[in-house]
Write a structure and sequence with these properties.
With 520 residues, this protein is α+β, with helices and mostly antiparallel strands. It contains 13 helices and 21 strands. The strands form seven sheets. It has a six-stranded mixed beta sheet, sandwiched between helices. Strands 13-14-15-16 form a four-stranded antiparallel beta sheet, with helices on both faces. A hairpin with a 2-residue loop joins strand 3 and strand 4. Helix 4 (246-267) packs across helix 7 (309-329).
Amino acid sequence: MWFLLRRTSPATALAALCAILTLVAPGRAQAQTASVSSSATPTSLQRPAGLYGFAPSVTPTPTRGPTVVLPSLTPVRTPTAAAPTATFRAPATATATPAPSATARPAASPTASPSPTEPPPFVITGQPLAGQTIVLDPGHGGRDPGALYNGVREADFNLATALTTRPLLLDAGARVILTRETDTLVGPADGTITQDLEARAQIANRANADLFISIHANVHTDPEVAGAITFYGQESGYAGGQQRSPRQVELSRQLAGAIEHGVALRTGENERGIRIANFWVLGATKMPSVLLEAGFLTNPQEAQRLASPSYQRRIAEGITLGVIDFVRRRVVLPTDRAKPMGGPDARYYDQTGHNLAFGFRNYFDTHGGLDAFGYPRTEEMVENGFTVQYFQRARFEYHPELAGTPYEVELGLLGDAITADRRPFPLGTPFESSAEHRWYPETGHGLHFAFLRYFDTHGGLDAFGYPISEELYGENGWPYAVQYFQRARFEYHPEYAGTPYEVELGLVGDELLAQRGWLG
């Protein structure tokens, strides 16, 4: 239950918590403890973001999760909201799944949930979650009991349901981590609510988890309201300043829909739908993350069911089926976060979630590193018969036929790729080359001043290829000059004149990947 305290400071939240515990009658609850104090903002990618915007030459076939035979799940109740259809195009606005008010639960018609009917047998064939690391987060705990209604303590329900879900996920092949296994806070014993929430998120981040699922119970002013709601995080607007990419938001939305539907089918409860929110744990985690409000403790009948181990088992089955459905349907993009390879020859960049190893790492380190190429955007992959890896500003290509020569690793022709629909550019006027000016008759373009100096000191023709345009001004509204080469785009930044960043390479890797639909 997250809505009352999520926008207050930790000190104010704790004071309010104590006051409510003192004033409420037995069996009533204090408000949900969502966070609100500042914390470290996730590291952003290096350098100012350039254009995100290509038509692919080759698109690897997306990989899907394993196929699993699911039990026949015939709904045993009439849902109040249809389950969302999995899609990779998030709605432009969240009108279908609005964020809840900070002071009130989502509006709902006060319809009591029907008594659940016995669902079909729960059967999972094989291990469809093999290789998946899933973090289950039983909300609250210790001196933060969560909601207290109708004799049910939310923290106890959350933990019992997580403990029941764990063996089901394990049987399906997953590695499962719980943020807590006893009635205690996860953060420092004397810490703030914000520290506790951050500690939960960091358990998932440190484990490089594939999914994060926080389990809670809900409350409403109307005691007849019942059913499950599943939340997923928005892009921004978090109290700690966290940011989530459109891809993270979309995958979380799909996971929320799958779990919401699975829980409703196994329990027979009202399917109240999915909602977008700025809860701390949904913003601070780096993987698809959701927060399940499994039912309303303020509904006496539903509270009684939530306290039942057999009903907790049904919720656990619904979570498991939802996770399997998500993994089975998910299309894995090359830009999705990967797990660290480990070992002395590999380096992991948590900023983008990708590894850099062996020959590509050596080229990266000896040809300019982050300043030149930015962060890796994919793992190594095969395109056109070559092993390649994408970076923010480049594509590395491995040429085994040139092993042992300076051309074993080369930069791909990304300048050509992102300008394919614009070429040929207008030719330049020929001139005599000099110390500050050079004419390239091969392509009919010149190179001058700062761009020429950068070209000569950073690899020249071997690194960038020939210029394929003249200097261009006002490109995409940018307030600086650019020039395209076969393998790169030079950008002139007068505000950095006299520094190593006077000339920078454009984000042509990002632009190409975005045009393929691999970056949001």
